[in-house]
Amino acid sequence: MDSRQQGFTMLEVMVALAIFSLVAIALLQTITSNVRTINMLDEKQLAGWVGDNRLSLAILEKRSFQASAVQGEEQMNGKVFYWREMGQPSPQEGLWINRVEVRTNASQLTPVSSVDVWVRAGSHASTPH
Length: 129
What we know:
Structural class: alpha+beta
Radius of gyration: 28 Å
Oligomer: single chain
Domain Type II secretion system protein GspI C-terminal: 41-119
Largest sheet: 4 strands, antiparallel
Organism: Buttiauxella warmboldiae
Family: Belongs to the GSP I family.
Order of helices and strands: HEEEE
CATH topology: Pantoate--beta-alanine Ligase, Chain: A,domain 2
Number of strands: 4
Shape: rod-shaped
GO cellular component, one term: plasma membrane
Main location: membrane
Distance between the termini: 103 Å
Number of domains: 1
Strand order of the largest sheet: 1-2-3-4
Strand content: 25-35%
CATH class: Alpha Beta
Low-confidence stretches: none
């Protein structure tokens, strides 16, 4: 009989399995992080579009933004977004800030997206009447 060993020892197999497991866990964490980031970026992009659409609609309707906030909700790509329109005087005289804040939850404190447009006071979709 040949006394030379063929194949791997149990220790070698266990070390290889441990290394493979660590690499697999690291890869899984990276993939999970990437998916979370992609979802967050998708949400921010859609929220920005909702804000842009609200500002564009106000300009097309020649509607003024009031100092008191107007709120509503809009669905985009199967997700519901909660927007809030408000106007406020700017620090620079003669300008008015139209702002749309967009949230993914009505009770969320920090908006996902905030879109500002500075317009001349007295122009359409700017100062309250």
